[in-house]
Automatic annotation (TrEMBL):
FAD-binding PCMH-type domain ranges (all copies): 8-182
Highest taxon in the source lineage: Bacteria
Alphabetical list of Gene3D superfamilies matching this protein: 3.30.465.10, CO dehydrogenase flavoprotein, C-terminal domain
Keyword terms of this UniProt record: FAD, Flavoprotein, Oxidoreductase
Name of the featured protein: Molybdopterin dehydrogenase
Record's keyword annotation contains DNA repair: no
Annotated GO MF terms: FAD binding; oxidoreductase activity
Listed Pfam families: CO_deh_flav_C, FAD_binding_5
Length: 297
């Protein structure tokens, strides 16, 4: 369906199925604020049913856009389209291992078969985001004129700065990594804590990655945390403390405090921000204690 064939915004509600990102972009501009971009729609459906979001006048489905369905690991980059399902990310052999573990822990199998990596990212609190952040993933956006890449961590910082409330005007095309994203020499960690074993919102989700050099010093440290009630984030202060250091009891206490201060936590009816902060700090320092090869008293 060509863009020129679209009726005016005031015409009846419907689901639109553009064939390209350029077409979806133009359609979004034509229909304006009464439109929501959707692919799997699993989170949006939950929000509509709960009354926490208003059902829009128009849905623009990206399910028929080939540009967001790619899974490629050629050359120097690994690429996963925004429309690829969580189940497909979990199964794909070239996906970074931390992302595969994150996808395995999201919702139930039936949801993972519909929900997409793009939808999980765009929520700004999705369980995949800590894994994406610590593997230095980039988000590739379509802005109407071409593609623009942005580190996940930088985008999350911008989301935090506006309280997660401002709408993203660009269209997410894909998630991209360098071929070094899945460092076989690195110690990686991903953990999600929920109110029950599965299919529940995250109380806290954390991820970490580092290497040890020949002198036992931590290198390439990446830490991130998120929850269902807060925008996920990289923990830059804790990373700076760890980089080039040897694990010790004093360092553990400093890192624990830095995680508490760097993570917003977020509060809802099920957990306070203080509880989430402590949980994230406990999980990450326990990971470092176990994997860094030196336990301090």
């Amino acid at each position: 369906m060509a863009v020129g064939e679209y009726p005016l915004p005031e015409m009846r509600k419907r689901v639109w199925q553009p064939r390209t990102l350029a077409e979806a972009w133009q359609l979004k501009r034509t229909l304006g604020e009464q439109t929501v971009i959707v692919s799997g729609g699993t989170l949006l459906r939950t929000q509509w049913e709960a009354g926490t979001a208003i059902m829009p006048g128009h849905l623009i489905s990206l399910e028929s856009v080939p540009e967001v369905q790619v899974c490629e690991a050629g050359g120097a980059a690994i690429r996963i389209g925004a429309g690829v399902t969580l189940a497909a990310c979990q199964r794909w052999g070239d996906a970074p291992s931390l992302l595969k573990e994150a996808c395995r822990r999201i919702a139930a199998p039936s949801i993972r078969r519909l929900g997409t990596i793009g939808g999980n990212v765009m929520s700004a609190s999705g369980d995949s985001l800590p894994a994406l952040a610590v593997t230095d993933a980039e988000l590739v956006w379509y802005d109407g004129s071409g593609s623009v890449a942005e580190p996940v961590g930088a985008w999350l910082e911008q989301r935090r700065a506006v309280g997660g409330s401002a709408k993203e005007t660009r269209l997410l095309k894909e998630v991209r990594w360098s071929r070094k994203a899945d460092d076989q020499e690195a110690c990686g960690y991903y953990e999600k804590v929920g109110r029950r074993e599965g299919f529940c919102p995250s109380v806290v989700t954390v991820a970490g990655q580092f290497r040890l050099d020949a002198a036992g010093r931590l290198r390439g440290v990446r830490l991130a945390a998120g929850s269902a009630a807060a925008v996920a984030c990289r923990l830059a202060e804790a990373e700076a403390l760890l980089e080039g250091s040897v694990w010790s009891a004093d360092l553990r206490r400093s890192v624990h405090q830095a995680v508490m201060e760097g993570f917003d936590g977020g509060a809802d009816a099920f957990a306070t921000a203080a509880y989430r902060k402590r949980a994230a700090a406990h999980l990450l320092t326990a990971f470092l204690e176990e994997r860094a090869g030196c336990r301090g008293d």
